[in-house]
Design goal:
- The protein has 166 residues and is mainly alpha-helical.
- It is built from eight helices and four strands.
- The protein has a two-stranded antiparallel ribbon.
- It is rod-shaped, with a radius of gyration of 25 Å.
- 12% of the residues are buried.
Length: 166
């Protein structure tokens, strides 16, 4: 019986390129998912009085940090102070919204003059304090409604890593 053994040192896995391939794909995956989720959040964000140009929708952005490290992180966020209230809603009995924050909204939504809006703003703020309102949950829904898509993106990236390592 004649046995032979042949060892090849070809391929990215054996040549020491594996860490760079894995890191590059990790960075690419986090960037791809973050940008995808930004688009999904924007689709679900209610348009306020400034429309798509300003306000909440215009303030939403994505950021990927830590590229090139094992702790690469993607964040979808808004710089607007009221983003959390729109996301989660406001419970009844929590108190009134700050004075002056609803004047522009009343002008646009109800067609009131600035003087009229300022005059009835107190009543609207009081009603919000009493009844509260449901949140839009645009960040939460962007993730939960797209879990299957996010899983598929992860699987595709995993297959790409395997292919590049072969």
């Amino acid at each position: 019986m004649n046995l032979s053994l042949r060892i090849e040192t070809k391929g990215a896995l054996l040549s020491g390129q594996a860490p760079q391939i894995i890191q590059g794909n990790l960075d690419g995956f986090v960037t791809e998912v973050t940008m995808f989720l930004l688009g999904e959040v924007k689709k679900r964000t209610p348009q306020g009085v400034f429309g798509a140009q300003g306000g909440l929708l215009g303030s939403e952005q994505a950021e990927v940090s830590g590229k090139g490290s094992p702790v690469v992180k993607g964040v979808v966020m808004s710089a607007q102070a009221y983003a959390e209230v729109i996301e989660k809603g406001r419970t009844a009995g929590k108190g009134m919204p700050p004075k002056g924050v609803l004047v522009r909204w009343l002008e646009v939504k109800l067609g009131l003059s600035e003087t009229e809006a300022a005059r009835i703003e107190y009543v609207v703020r009081r009603k919000i304090a009493q009844k509260g309102f449901d949140g839009a949950h645009m960040f939460e829904r962007a993730v939960t409604e797209n879990m299957a898509r996010l899983d598929a993106m992860a699987e595709a990236r995993g297959l790409l890593i395997v292919k590049e390592l072969s």
